[in-house]
Amino acid sequence: MLRNIDERLTTAGAPNNEHLSLISPAKLGMKLTRITATWLLLCIVILVPLYSIFNIQKPISTTTGSNDSKQQQMEKKIGGLLATEFDEKSCLSRYHQSSLRKPSPYKPSSYLVSKLRRYEKLHKRCGPGTEAYKRATEQLDENQVRSSDKECRYVVWVATEYGLGNRIISMIGQIDSYNTDYSRCYGTMLKNHAINSTTTIPPLHLYLHLLHDYRAEDKTFYCQENQAFIKNVPWLVVKANIYFVPSLWLIPSFQTKLIKLFPQKDTVFHHLSRYLLHPTNQVWGMVTRSYNAYLSKADEILGIQVRVFGRRAGYFQHVMDQILDCTQREKLLPEPAQESQMMNISKTPKLKAVLVTSLHPEYSDNLKSIFLERPSSTGEMVLVYQPSGERVQQTDKKLHDQKALAEMYLLSLADKLVTSTRSTFGYVAQGLGGLKPWILLYEPRNRKAPADPPCVRAMSMEPCFIRAPLHGCQAKTIKTTPFIKYCEDWNPGIKLLVTSTRSTFGYVAQGLEGLKPWILYELRHKQAPDPPCVRAMSMEPCSLKAPISACQAENQNNPFYITLSEPSPTPTKVNMSLGLRMKILITFIFSSLLIGSVILLSFSNNFDDQLLDGTLNGSSESEPHHDKLIGGLLRAGFDEGSCVSRYTKSLLYRKPSPYKPSPYLVSKLRSYEMLHKRCGPGTEAYKRATEQLDANQERSSDKECRYVVWVATEYGLGNRIISMVSSFLYALLTERIILVDQRKDINDLFCEPFPDTSWLLPLDFPLMGQIDSYYKDYSRCYGTMLKNHAINSTTTPPSHLYLHLLHDYRDEDKMFYCEANQAFIKNVPWLVVKSNLYFAPSLWLIPSFQTKLLKMFPQKDTVFHHLSRYLLHPTNQVWDIVTSTYNANLSKADEVLGLQIRVFSTPSGYFQHVMDQIVSCTQREKLLPELATNGSSHSQVMNTTRSKKLKAVLVASLHPEYSDELSKMFLERPSSTGEMIQVYQPSGERVQQTDEKLHDQKALADIYLLSLSDNIVTTERSTFGYVAHGLGGLKPWILYEPKNRKVPDPPCVRALSMEPCFIRAPLHGCQAKKIKTTPFIKHCENWNLGIKLVDAPDKFWWW
């Protein structure tokens, strides 16, 4: 393409010289006086309206005047690179890519624009279907004499077997059987002396072998004398997988044109790729859907392109370490916070999106885990997103190539970019985006990351010509040309740079062509100058030793030097004549600027402060203070810093719950807190109570303090939480103190819920060494004692009883739910409970409890909702995971859908029928949109000038494949509604690791994140889902359990209430009749053996 432009179009004239005449000191002083007065007048005119604007605090939308319209048109046409004759709908990316990109600071030269317009006319005249093309192809018959018509000549680019990146970089610059053995291969013909400089009749076509394995003869293509021969060949067939543009600059006949085409020499790929490469609507749909769903709301985007070369590519820890070392050393990513740096979540911090492209998803998974487990040291929220991870490169597979191209474009939209050494995929991304990347240096050997440094900043945004002709005709020019340098990460390669400050080579070039170049400032103390470059005021060379000159004005960036169009005999007089008056004027101007800036800044700060106060404090002023206390559930007075989640979770993330706690419940909780403080660990009452636990000691008649000891079982976190809440409800009803077993990381998960005391069972508890062995056969097990007739209504209650309320309990154990048995149990001081069930519904069927329960919970299906929000406050470490994940991935969404997926089969894992069931349920219930049909997908491709509704899908599962498939589904095709779908899964650890601290903390964070959803889908009988929808006050859609690996019909059902299901209810015995006749007790929607609470009229069951 580049060679076509250079060789086949005529050159344009150079611009006329521009002259600035000398100004006398007197006139200069008068002009500065007038400027100062004008500026002061403008300040007054501007500041008065601004004062009014900021005070009334009304945002005023900017009007789109003619200047704005012209600017938009120029951005749409990429500074004139694009013509305007195309049908926009047929290729949306052509004119819409500027709507996603920040305006490029690199503007195409007018000469390049004119060249492209002429090339388009030439292509239209000579392209397929024209008479000229017909004549040219007829000449390809080797037996036909070639006519002298030189109107149209062609370069035929043939796709090779190499990847998409190689193809694109070679396109900017192949017939399948052509190789170095082909008789018309130019290098072979030279080697066999079939042609030479004296050959008068060029062949009708030549094959140019410009692949990485080309020979010295093939490399003579880059020599001036060979180009003189090649230019007369009508047809050139090219196979290349390298970016050979830098060597074209070293061909003298091309260099003159190239300097005019690209005054900023490192913009060749940037301009030509944006002119030439416009993704199809299907690819552009992938780009826009990914960008709007995951990246558009970020304050900054970091692209990381990871390519592992080698026969055994994959995930390697040394590569992961290298990525982290590079991004943290270069301040591209923050380091994880230490304990003393825990983030302040009182407001939403800066959001940084990290876009990872790699064949292997483990790199993004590890990055995600790092910022999930610990907040960043800077307080930034870090969102990690990888569009696809297909593990194997599948070049020429349509969908794979489309995804690859979409990822290149997404990377090019980043603010900063990290790429892998010698990766053409990265070359394309950085060139399209106009980005100078950080390059991961070297290919780590022996699985060790490079010691120092791990990466280097690229000298330019140009790709590296990794197989440059370092020997031969260009050997000397490569070493002496200032805008050609060896690649940072690959010495055999070369790349283009911008002309440097004080480069005499650049002076000659700009003077020859009549160009005003952009001049790079020199680096001082290894710091990048700001601004990085300046436009020359004239095309004249700089006199490096003159006291006043154009180069001083540009290179020193001093506005009071004067550019001269020709030498002046007395340059120093101008500088001397300015004198004291000039200094006073300068001082006055800058003082005025400073004062005006301070005034403007104060107005702006005043406006911002008032706006922030309105945002943060408005709700506090308009709503009662008890919102922070969840309608009075919580008590004020806790140290907020020690447990941030206690008071902030309801204010920052949850929508106000429509379910308000009753005054009676609030008063009961306050009474309980007083009781717990009086009887809790460390008190005299507790000491006396533990002394009674000696089995041989007679129980005293002191009934002041009685206890429920909740013991953590081997079951998962969901089971533990629902049984803990049930046990607390029982303690509340019977005026007992609940103490929880702290040996299973409970204090790493939850804060203390009660003020001025502890709910943790002391480690020196007298029965601590025995309770793990308590089971159905334990002599003090209540069911066993009933079965053995060891107790009856006349028996003196023992000092403690073990209540076996696990899912495998017997009929005798279930007698716990009978009124008569409760009359006996209430007199036992210590009850040790093991349970993995939510047994609260059966407590409602005990007559002595029901009266209290009706008063505590007038809305009967709010038991778990209220008690869990009162009792369960995640520790700061867990809350950091919740807040960082929410802010980074969910906070920008218009709606959040939670999906909780549990596979109970053995072995568990990813199953297609489960995936089909999830899709069927969510689409049937209108929770997720359907995909646009193939026939309508063209019209469904979104308009990228504005963002659509963003729906975030939060997936909680041990298996990441479910979220991967959902993400892939909405990446490949648009939704029928136009909604943007963002799929996020915080963790996918494949195996449940109960009692592993970090695993349980992530699980609890996942539960809380699910509870923040607007709608939720859960798995049948999953206690993990029970806790999530109960905390959130959500009625879920429940996925039926599949049978015979087939999707159930219907796939899911809406829950009757937000209450968990008591999946092992006592359906027989004393409660059998009550279950059938009580209006607020129903069988679970998806499990007939279970019961649950629903809201119903205030009736006693016997009415």
Automatic annotation (TrEMBL):
Pfam families cross-referenced by the UniProt entry: XG_FTase
InterPro entries with a match to the protein in the record: XG_FTase
Bilayer-crossing regions: 37-54
Segment forming the signal sequence: none
Location, primary (coarse class): Golgi
Keywords: Cell wall biogenesis/degradation, Glycoprotein, Glycosyltransferase, Golgi apparatus, Membrane, Transferase, Transmembrane, Transmembrane helix
Location within or outside the cell: Golgi apparatus
Family, per entry: Belongs to the glycosyltransferase 37 family.
Designated name of the protein: Fucosyltransferase
